[in-house]
């Protein structure tokens, strides 16, 4: 678990929503495949077209099989146009044009919607082979242009983008740090991770709160309880998995507060029902605010 000041959103890949422009730094390929598979399957479930731009060393056919769940599933998704995989370079060295690249993304989105898909999601690998830029600052420029054009002010979001950078290649570069800052969402680097961030009187927890992450979740609650505020806020809205033990720990934190201190939990409908099932209504120091169903 990492705990840091609130800055943007850090979520599990399954919590990405249309309109999110997300960043992922990966350190091993197996974890990357797990995240890309979850990203792809979510797109299929939403009726979106999924586009994957991968490194030239990766076979598009093999990538399709990995993310779609096998050869037959990949063939069906490719045939109906719901999955598109490419390892073609974006441009030749010396031919960088951020505006042209962003305009191409906008045209693809318009085409996808015209063809009857509910939206488009794309995952793009940052690779010097795919984008032989003259310097990495050009890749950051593209990220800025893409964000301002398709995410910052576009109403009715229908586009979800995941930009993934290889920490082994770019982790020590200023460009990767700058690219990370462009994005409003960061994807947790592995499935099942837990992330906690604190700011003011609030702690936001995302990822999975289960047996494997129990000490980390309880540590986040202790940190919240130590904040010098009358109203403590625990935001679990983007928590992907919330087990009964975690819910019980939340109720114990609230019950242990002395008036006028109280705990406000911001959550989804299913999480609220679990808290109520375990006796949340009887805890006077607790208020539950349903952010989404």
Question: Could you describe the 3D structure shown?
Answer:
About 40% of the residues lie in helices and about 25% in strands. Strands 1, 9, 10, 11, 12, 13 and 14 form a seven-stranded mixed sheet that branches. A seven-stranded parallel sheet has the order 2-8-3-7-6-4-5, sandwiched between helices. It has two domains: about 10-185, Rossmann fold (3-Layer(aba) Sandwich), CATH 3.40.50.300; about 195-290, 2-Layer Sandwich (Transcription Regulator spoIIAA). It has about 290 residues and is of the alpha/beta class. The chain has helices spanning about 30-45, 60-70, 70-80, 100-115, 135-150, 165-170, 175-180, 215-225, 245-255, 270-275, and strands at about 5, 10, 20-25, 50-55, 85, 120-125, 160-165, 185, 195-200, 200-210, 230-235, 240, 260-270, 285-290.
Write the layout of secondary structure elements.
Elements: E1 3-5, E2 9-11, E3 21-26, H1 29-46, E4 49-53, H2 60-68, H3 71-79, E5 83-86, H4 98-114, E6 120-126, H5 137-150, E7 159-166, H6 167-170, H7 174-182, E8 185-187, E9 194-199, E10 202-209, H8 214-225, E11 231-235, E12 239-242, H9 244-255, E13 262-268, H10 269-277, E14 286-292
Parallel strand pairs: 1-9, 2-8, 3-7, 3-8, 4-5, 4-6, 6-7, 10-11, 10-12, 11-13, 13-14
Antiparallel strand pairs: 9-10
Helix pairs in contact: 2-3, 4-5, 5-7, 8-9
What is the CATH class designation of the largest domain? Alpha Beta
| Count of discrete domains | 2
Give the second-level CATH assignment, the architecture of the largest domain. 3-Layer(aba) Sandwich
Category from helices, strands and their pairing = alpha/beta
CATH fold field value of the largest domain? Rossmann fold
Instruction: Please report the total strand number as a whole number.
Output: 14
Terminal-residue CA separation: 26 Å
- The secondary-structure element order is EEEHEHHEHEHEHHEEEHEEHEHE
Mean pLDDT score: 90
Radius of gyration: 21 Å
